[in-house]
Amino acid sequence: MAIHTRAAITGAGALLLSALLGGCSLIPWLGSEEDPTPPSELPELDQSLTPTTLWSARVTDGTDGRRLYLVPTLAAGRLYVADARGTLAAVAADNGRVLWRQETELAFSGGPEVHGERLVLGTTGGELALFSTADGTELWRTRLGSEVLSVPRFADAETIVVHTLDDSLYGIEAATGEQRWHLTYPAPVLTLRGSSTPAVAPDGVIVGLSGGKLIKFDVADGTPLWEVTITRPSGRSELSRIADIDADPVLVGTTVFVGTYNGDLAAVDAVTGTVLWRRELSAHAGLAATPEALFVTDSRDQVWGADPLSGAGRWVQEALRYRRLTAPALLGQVVAVGDLEGYVHLLDAADGQLLGRTRVTKKAPITAPPLAAAGRLYVYADDGTLSALSVGAIPARTAQRAPEQADNASP
């Protein structure tokens, strides 16, 4: 995970800041210095659940070694993926066959998002571009003010909402690319390098900002409907005061779940902005939720299961600490996360037990959250490898075990 600063930081100082937070690899020029948080060795595992790779192919060049937010998207039986060098591709979800590939020369950094016959992506250069899902033909592109490191969202058929790295929010006319409205929120001097993806509610859009604020705004004109601080920055140093909401807010019914770095996990009423509960937990990778359960990857790469009604911890899986886990994905009763060595780990949603794992690629990490859809897991690794996995059912002896309580549960 990297840190983004509004002030100019050069040379060794910039490199050091990029590695100060947990899970980052050793910087070669530091010589004999050891990583204070080395990735956990993988535990011996009696796999009670063995994922089956249905197909796997290297479709693009992936992230080009950078921390981007390029994710797989499924629509109408097709997976859409993009890479940092401008490749955009459509792949048949049933067999992995590439249906079309476009070389756009755009430095994609966020997306894609699909709506009907259109798909949209953001770029490192601060552009937003719309394409046809039929063959990848570019329909329009428009200039924004900053890099896009989140997924642009279709708030409805007419409006695309974008959150950029400088904490600006844009409403873009989907038909033409023209700007409808623009909001800018002041960001702290030091922030995580990333932006949360907006969550679309029936009556507005919800997004998390640097500095720990969660806001909801009107899609039509960008008017703020409510604003709440999830975590207030605290501490003596700028690093300790980082309280960003980089994890994408997750909307379940009328409740939005959100996590902050150096701060809290919280549930907020999506209609009023009232904080329903707040628990101390640092998170930036992301979370998944249903009406019955909440799952979070915390900043030490521990995976938590929690009660969505109170935030109380049900279990915690600590065996994967500092393996730079993705946000969790939920497929039935299985929780899946990717890691820095290209593994996908499967956990029992009832108690967090490690059930199985498989390696998608040996050449790159997985930073995009696995996509759980249509009874499968779709995994897009940083080297451009796209895979479809079948998970199967948890064995009866595991599924019937009573959930264990997390020791000193914090959420």
Topology:
Elements: E1 3-5, H1 11-17, E2 52-58, E3 69-70, E4 73-75, E5 78-82, E6 87-92, E7 98-103, E8 108-115, E9 118-123, E10 127-132, E11 138-143, E12 153-154, E13 159-163, E14 168-173, E15 179-184, E16 190-192, E17 199-201, E18 204-208, E19 213-217, E20 224-229, E21 250-252, E22 255-259, E23 264-269, E24 275-280, E25 286-289, E26 294-297, E27 303-306, E28 313-317, E29 329-331, E30 334-338, E31 343-348, E32 354-359, E33 371-373, E34 376-380, E35 385-390, H2 396-399
Parallel strand pairs: 3-8
Antiparallel strand pairs: 1-16, 2-35, 4-5, 5-6, 6-7, 8-9, 9-10, 10-11, 12-13, 13-14, 14-15, 17-18, 18-19, 19-20, 21-22, 22-23, 23-24, 25-26, 26-27, 27-28, 29-30, 30-31, 31-32, 33-34, 34-35
Detailed description of the structure:
The chain is mostly beta strands and 411 residues long. It has a single domain (51-391), classed as Methylamine Dehydrogenase, Chain H (7 Propeller), CATH 2.130.10. It is 3% helix and 41% strand. The chain is built from 2 helices and 35 strands. The chain has helices at 11-17, 396-399, and strands at residues 3-5, 52-58, 69-70, 73-75, 78-82, 87-92, 98-103, 108-115, 118-123, 127-132, 138-143, 153-154, 159-163, 168-173, 179-184, 190-192, 199-201, 204-208, 213-217, 224-229, 250-252, 255-259, 264-269, 275-280, 286-289, 294-297, 303-306, 313-317, 329-331, 334-338, 343-348, 354-359, 371-373, 376-380, 385-390. The strands form 9 sheets. The chain has a 5-stranded mixed sheet with strand order 3-8-9-10-11, with no helix packed on it. A 4-stranded antiparallel sheet has the order 2-35-34-33, with no helix packed on it. A 4-stranded antiparallel sheet has the order 4-5-6-7, with no helix packed on it. β26 (294-297) and β27 form a beta hairpin. It starts with a strand and ends in a 12-residue tail after the last helix. Residues 5-32 and 398-404 have low confidence and may be disordered. Keywords: Cell outer membrane, Lipoprotein, Membrane, Palmitate, Signal. Part of the outer membrane protein assembly complex, which is involved in assembly and insertion of beta-barrel proteins into the outer membrane. Belongs to the BamB family. Part of the Bam complex. It is a lipid-anchor.
